[in-house]
């Protein structure tokens, strides 16, 4: 694999990371983390479903899309621990993933537009494309953990609420979007790790996987000698004497 070229693996990783960040943004903004369904036995009234998000709360009658009660200040008075944790975890996961995307883009631009052999004076100080992709993969993995852990906790906390109060709570679509986005972040990190492992030479330093030696040491390396040129000068210069009969 020519590691100084932009490959389909890095492009696919960038697209997958972008889609995962978009999914996280949708999960953060949607008011569909938890539903609380309130039933009434009065035939003249309709059941009410309360949609709880990270920032707003909305109560709707069955069959209606308009919010009867809309609370835009819900984020300041969240009384459910799992949603309070998600208010901090998901933005942090998004920030980490965006930083990883930025590093991945730097690595792709470096391979596409920068010379393959850097200046020998600064070769040991450069962070090359494979180094950028390695750090980006680690950041994507960290963002996955930060997003996945509290999102899965919502499911268990929902069961806890049903046992503590009444079985009227259920988790909503934002939970699935967040878990799917975490899976996309994990897939992105695996792609970048595979690309890095395929390109890294074993004796190279951790932060410089593409340049195990100074460029001048391999730029001017002599070509392999032929079998004839490997003979010593004495063997070449010794004349062959034949005796006449």
TrEMBL record:
Localization per Swiss-Prot or TrEMBL: Cell junction, Tight junction; Membrane
Principal location class: other
Key words, A-Z: Cell junction, Membrane, Tight junction, Transmembrane, Transmembrane helix
A GO-annotated cellular component: bicellular tight junction
Protein origin, superkingdom: Eukaryota
Family: Belongs to the claudin family.
Name the record gives this protein: CLD12 protein
